[in-house]
Amino acid sequence: MSDIKLLKLIAREAGEIVRRGYHSHKEIHHKGVVDLVTQYDVETERFLLDALSEAFPDHTLVGEESYTGSWDLERAIYIDPIDGTTNFVHGIPHLAVSLGVWEGGEATMAVVYNPILDELYWAERGRGAWLGEEQLRVSEDQTLQNALIATGFPYAKVNRGAEYRWVVDAIAEILPRIQDLRRLGSAACDLSYLARGIFAAFYEINLKPWDVAAGILLVQEAGGRVSNLAGEPYRFGDRGIVTGTPAIHRALLEALPPYI
Ligand code: IPD
Ligand code: CA
Ligand code: CA
């Protein structure tokens, strides 16, 4: 079986655990004031670590719930067992298992699987981005005023510190200039929607590699742009990520406030 087929199969199997959990009672623990984790995040990650270590023995497995090392790795799979845990807890079906394979500093394979809607987004470098059998392209909308844009809010907002201020300033700056803004609660799904042509752009600060490792490749392979807030190539650990169709990415970079 090819590597991408194996990755899709493992994501689907992990998705079964997530789907079972979505319809069951959950034990909810707090990683921070508003940052939640359930037994299903942990169980799904454990399953993924077992399955991926067997299928991809040469890759470092960077799982959200267990990994503590450096993010800068030669060959790695960045794993978010449930991206959108707050949605998972509240019964909102915008969530996914996200698996991003990176080699030599670039994404090579990606799978984002929403087991509730049974939507499987995948990409291979140089071979396009797909939803099942359908090839994806970013939207052709050229004006910021027609753009439906997605974002997210960092958990650190509760401190009303610099992150909170930036989020509020960014909204104040762009809201009058765009069609509308969405905060749906899963960066991996948001990036998949951008690749699919639903959103014209997505931006957020303080994301971790497992939130975006797969979605970045989906967007790039669907013809979109990905950068940090300064417009430079995005690297894990950068303060912000800005992604979009080529035209809207450029316009959004100009409109967003710099991160201090
Ligand atoms: C979160 C989601 C959310 C984003 C947060 C992430 P989690 O991931 O992607 O949309 O705004 O910043 O941490 O905690 O549900 O895996
Ligand atoms: Ca996440
Ligand atoms: Ca998660």
TrEMBL record:
InterPro entries for the chain: IMPase (IPR033942), Inositol_monophosphatase-like (IPR000760), Inositol_monophosphatase_CS (IPR020550)
A Pfam family matched in the record: Inositol_P
Binding annotation for Mg(2+): 64, 80, 82-83, 211
Matches recorded under PANTHER family: INOSITOL MONOPHOSPHATASE, INOSITOL-1-MONOPHOSPHATASE-RELATED
Naturally occurring in which organism (per UniProt): Nitratifractor salsuginis (strain DSM 16511 / JCM 12458 / E9I37-1)
Keyword Hydrolase among record annotations: yes
Enzyme class: hydrolase
Keywords in alphabetical order: Hydrolase, Magnesium, Metal-binding
Cofactors (names): Mg(2+)
The protein's Enzyme Commission number: 3.1.3.25
Gene3D superfamilies: 3.40.190.80, Fructose-1,6-Bisphosphatase, subunit A, domain 1
Reactions catalysed according to its record: a myo-inositol phosphate + H2O = myo-inositol + phosphate
Protein name (Swiss-Prot/TrEMBL): Inositol-1-monophosphatase
Family of this protein: Belongs to the inositol monophosphatase superfamily.
